[in-house]
Amino acid sequence: MAIISSNIDNNDQSLRKKDLRLVDSKIIPEDKSNNNLNFARPGTLQEFIGQEQLKSSLRIAIDASTYRKEPLEHTLLYGQPGLGKTTLAFLIANEMNTKCRIATAPAIERPRDIVGLLLSLKEGEVLFIDEIHRLNKLTEELLYSAMEDFRLDLTVGANRGARCRTINLPRFTLIGATTKLASISAPLRDRFGMSQKIEFYTPDELKQIIVNFSRLINLNLNDDASYNLARISRGTPRLALRLLRRVRDYAQVVKKTNVVSVNVIRAALNSYQIDEKGLDAFDRKYLSFLNNNNNNATGLDSIAAGLGDNSSMLESVVEPYLIQIGFLTRTPRGRLLTALGKKYIESKNDNF
Ligand code: ADP
Questions:
Q1: Which atom in ligand 1 lies closest to the alpha carbon of residue 83?
Q2: Could you give the C-alpha distances from 217 to 39, 214, 230, 231, in angstroms and in order?
């Protein structure tokens, strides 16, 4: 698997470092570090590339709220990791001229965590909760009245001394982000005034994102090179930027240049075992496993057991792109390689 490690030739060991897959759209520590491209998050809707439908709905909603001097309606953003949900939350706060406070649902464990967060908000501010489908029941129930009536209904004391206390909250906007819309309970979902899907990006849109960022870091990519990188970025800006960083490393260290051609991109990606389709060694291992199964539909759990991996990671991270490029289908009986997928994997000579 291509990983961010100097030991890129050691297939088997690196395959076990699942969290470090270069083409995994989930966030990895490097994406958060200061020495990366996140400083250049787009700050306005205009600078945000792609998602035209979503941007035009947001533009109207933001302008209407600003006109009425009201906070924006609670908004639910859903889509795969790395497509820009966090970026949009910051950007909405920026457009509304207010602050964005950020939290992830698994970190909000006790009722007092969410109470503390809500009490720290000021009028009009944005509260962003990532992975909102992972909120626990108690926290979720406290959010209902907070979202609907800007009010917290708390029970203080215990047993016969227990009484209800109501605290009024400032009007705020909750932006919830999720990769699993179906896992959000109906009562929570109904309390969002807007629900917006973030789609995968086209290669042209990703190319634009790559061009913008490469300018910021003084990397000189020609048109073909940026399009080439965009094409294999799985429709995901986070991956496009991560691959761009790897290409930059390779160009500067191996080729001693800031000028990046298609050939430099190929050589760089090759050194990370990423091929012309944007697939890495783990994707090929997955396809090989199915191919060795003689065209029989194979259940996800059997694949996970065969590959020594976790089925939810395969389902949410590995399979969507293989399906998108037409290499894999999900059937009621299990996963099946398509003719295209079979042709591709048989043309590769990775040894597993
Ligand atoms: P998510 O919250 O959906 O996982 P992020 O908002 O963290 O994704 O975005 C991942 C990276 O991609 C960030 O560095 C962000 O700046 C960049 N990005 C995402 N969408 C866009 C876009 N439409 N235009 C420019 N950059 C983007």
A1: 3
A2: 11, 5, 17, 21
